[in-house]
Specification:
Radius of gyration: 21 Å
Order of helices and strands: EHEHH
Number of helices: 3
Number of strands: 2
Structural class: mainly alpha
Shape: elongated
C-alpha cells in the first residue's frame, strides 16, 4: 500500500504485524525514500500483458426471476 499519510502508514503497519490486516505485506509513505526504492525495484521487473482467461463458461443465465422461483 502506498499512502501520503505517515500516521496511516504506522497504523496499518501495526495491523499487518498483528495480523489484523490480510492481503498487504507492507505500507510505504510516498514522500519517503522507501518509495524511491520501490520504484527502482519495479523498474527491474519485466511486465507483460496476461492472456485472457474465461472465468465463467456457461449457457445458463441467472436472473432475479430464476432466483425467486428457487426460493418458492
Amino acid at each position: 500500500m502506498v499512502t501520503l499519510e505517515e500516521n496511516e502508514a504506522k497504523s496499518v503497519k501495526a495491523k499487518i504485524k498483528s495480523g489484523d490486516v490480510i492481503g498487504l505485506d507492507n505500507v510505504i509513505v510516498a514522500t519517503n525514500n522507501e518509495f524511491n526504492e520501490l520504484i527502482n525495484e519495479l523498474k527491474l521487473y519485466q511486465f507483460s500483458e496476461p492472456p485472457t482467461v474465461k472465468v465463467i463458461d456457461s449457457n445458463q443465465v441467472i436472473t432475479v426471476e430464476k432466483m425467486k422461483a428457487l426460493k418458492k
